[in-house]
Write a structure and sequence with these properties.
The protein is mainly alpha-helical and about 300 residues long. The chain has one domain: Orthogonal Bundle (ABC transporter involved in vitamin B12 uptake, BtuC), CATH 1.10.3470. The chain contains eleven helices and two strands; from the N terminus they run ααααββααααααα. It has a two-stranded antiparallel sheet.
Length: about 300
C-alpha cells in the first residue's frame, strides 16, 4: 500500500468532509425548524459559487473578500423567500410533501436562471495563492525505493479547510450559547412547545431560513476553492449529498450532521485509494443503508414515537 496515497486520501477526506458537514448542517437547520425538504439547497450553493465568480470577474474582488457580501445577500434572500413561500405550506394536508414539490420547482427555476445567465458552460473562479501548494509532510523512503514522498496540498484547499473550521466553531457557538441559537434548537425538538413561551415562530423560522441560505452561499464560495470549476447543473448532486449527511447524522441534530459529513468525506476519499472511483462512491451509500437498518434515527438522532 502506498503510504503517500493513503495520507493524501486522509487529508482530502478531512477537506471534503468539512464541506459536506457544512452542507449537512445548514440543510439540517432548515429541515429541523421548518420541516421543509429543501431540494433546492444545492442550487443555493452553486449560486453562491457563481456570485463569487461574478464579483471576481466584474469587480476583481477576491473570493475571501466576497464572503461578507455573499453572506448578507443570501441571508436576505432566504429571509424573504420564507415569507414568500413557506407560510402557505402550513395550509397543506401534507406540508412535507408539498415543500418537496415546491422546492423542487425552485430548484428547476434556479437551474434555468443560472443557465440563462451563464449558459451551460462550466466556469472557473480564477484566483491563486502564494505559494500554490504546501508540503505538509515528508516521509523518507515512502515508496520503498530510496525515494522520499511528500504530502502536497493546494493552498486553496487548506484555506477552504480553515474557513470551514472557523464556520463550524462559530455555528456551534451560535447554536449552543446564544439565545437565538437555543431557540432554533428548541424549535427543532418541539416546534409547537416553544410558541407557548412567547417565541414568534415565524420570525424564528425566517431567521433559520436566512441562516441556512447564508451558510449555503458561503459553502458555494468555499467550494470554488476546492473544485476546479462550477457547473450550473451540479446543484442536485450536492443536495443529494446533503440529504445523505442529515440521514447519517440524524434529522434535526446539527452536531450529528458535522460528524456524519466528516465521516462520509473520509470514507469517500480513502476508498478511492483502494477502489475504483465508482466503487468508492458506492461505498458511501452502503454505509448509509447500513446506518438506516441498524440505527434508523441516525448516528446522533433520537428515536421518535408516533
Amino acid at each position: 500500500m502506498n503510504t503517500i496515497l493513503l495520507l493524501n486520501g486522509l487529508v482530502g477526506g478531512v477537506i471534503f468532509g468539512a464541506i459536506y458537514a457544512l452542507i449537512g448542517c445548514s440543510l439540517n437547520v432548515l429541515c429541523g425548524v421548518l420541516r421543509v425538504v429543501n431540494f433546492a439547497h444545492g442550487e443555493f450553493i452553486i449560486a453562491g459559487s457563481f456570485l463569487s465568480y461574478v464579483l471576481l470577474t466584474l469587480f476583481g474582488l477576491h473570493p475571501i473578500l466576497s464572503l461578507p457580501i455573499v453572506t448578507i445577500a443570501f441571508f436576505l434572500i432566504g429571509f424573504g423567500l420564507y415569507y414568500l413561500l413557506i407560510p402557505r405550506l402550513a395550509k397543506s394536508d401534507e406540508p412535507e410533501t408539498s415543500s418537496f414539490l415546491l422546492m423542487f420547482g425552485v430548484s428547476l427555476m434556479m437551474i434555468a436562471a443560472m443557465m440563462w445567465i451563464f449558459e451551460a458552460d462550466i466556469r472557473a473562479v480564477e484566483f491563486s495563492f502564494d505559494p500554490i501548494n504546501v508540503s505538509l509532510l515528508v516521509i523518507q523512503d515512502a515508496y520503498g525505493e530510496g525515494r522520499d514522498g511528500r504530502v502536497i496540498v493546494p493552498t486553496a484547499r487548506l484555506v477552504a479547510l480553515g474557513i470551514n473550521a472557523l464556520l463550524i466553531i462559530v455555528l456551534t457557538y451560535f447554536l449552543y450559547r446564544t439565545l437565538t441559537g437555543k431557540a432554533i434548537r428548541a424549535a427543532i425538538m418541539n416546534r409547537e412547545a416553544i410558541q407557548i413561551v412567547g417565541i414568534n415562530i415565524h420570525s424564528l423560522s425566517a431567521s433559520a431560513f436566512g441562516l441556512a441560505a447564508a451558510l449555503a452561499g458561503i459553502t458555494g464560495v468555499v467550494l470554488a476553492f476546492v473544485v476546479p470549476s462550477i457547473d450550473p447543473n451540479g446543484g442536485q448532486d450536492i443536495s443529494l449529498i446533503g440529504f445523505i449527511i442529515i440521514v447519517l447524522g440524524g434529522l434535526g441534530h446539527p452536531v450529528g450532521a458535522l460528524i456524519a459529513g466528516i465521516l462520509f468525506g473520509l470514507v469517500e476519499q480513502i476508498a478511492t485509494v483502494f477502489l475504483p472511483q465508482a466503487a468508492a462512491q458506492m461505498l458511501g451509500f452502503i454505509i448509509l443503508i447500513t446506518v438506516i437498518f441498524v440505527r434508523p434515527q441516525g448516528l446522533m438522532g433520537r428515536m421518535t414515537l408516533r
